[in-house]
Amino acid sequence: MLSFDLQFARGGFELSTRATVGAGVTGVYGPSGSGKSTLLALLAGLLAPSRGEVRLGDRVLVDTATRRFVPTWDRHVGLVFQDGQLFPHLTVRQNLLYGHSRIATDMRRFDLAGVAGLLELTPLLDRRPTLLSGGERQRVALGRALLYSPQLLLLDEPLSSLDDRLKQQILPFLKRIKDETRIPMLYVTHAHSELDYLADRALGMERGRLLADVTD
Ligand SMILES: Nc1ncnc2c1ncn2[C@@H]1O[C@H](COP(=O)(O)OP(=O)(O)OP(=O)(O)O)[C@@H](O)[C@H]1O
């Protein structure tokens, strides 16, 4: 369970929003510039709010009242962006294991073989990202985020750089991740078809505010 109550200002833009989000996929949609990526950056610890708090499970990640700010690397949050941002000099296997090898053994929820099987990456493990298709690269990015054993997955338009065929290929993998893990996911997209297929609920964002609070 994720809950947050956040305020943040940058330039003329102000974000002020709160919500509680449970397991499954919560879609976040809204006009360009409404603050969707900013919200994800605040949850991931890439930005600090001026005021507010973030709780994930039984951990307080941010509480400005007590000056608590858990850094990104210690949040157990997986991030996937539009362009998977793989390390080009590492193989698929090394990319997948990048976060995995940096977390304590007793915190690991998935193993390489399981994730590679789930995302059908086993035959690609020794390749470098430059020799992968866009869809394969995004599957590696998803696998890397999963192997980090996240308690929250933040997906920022993960399919928007792909053509329709690849989107249709990857959506079932996202569905499988949703069905086979209990990780809460925030899924930012402009595509209502993706929300229809994947999301358990959807939140609209406008001018820095989520239009409805979600509790479940
Ligand atoms: N690095 C930055 N520095 C300054 N302002 C920024 C920066 N990134 C975003 N902004 C501003 O913050 C506001 C929210 O942007 P954000 O990227 O969160 O919107 P978004 O809803 O994710 O948009 P999109 O759908 O186009 O990705 C916008 O006014 C944007 O111009």
Automatic annotation (TrEMBL):
Stretches assigned to the ABC transporter domain: 1-214
Regions that span the bilayer: none
Pfam families named among the record's database cross-references: ABC_tran
InterPro entries: AAA+_ATPase, ABC_transporter-like_ATP-bd, ABC_transporter-like_CS, Molybdenum_import_ModC, P-loop_NTPase
UniProt keyword list: ATP-binding, Nucleotide-binding
Top-level taxon: Bacteria
Protein name as catalogued: ABC transporter domain-containing protein
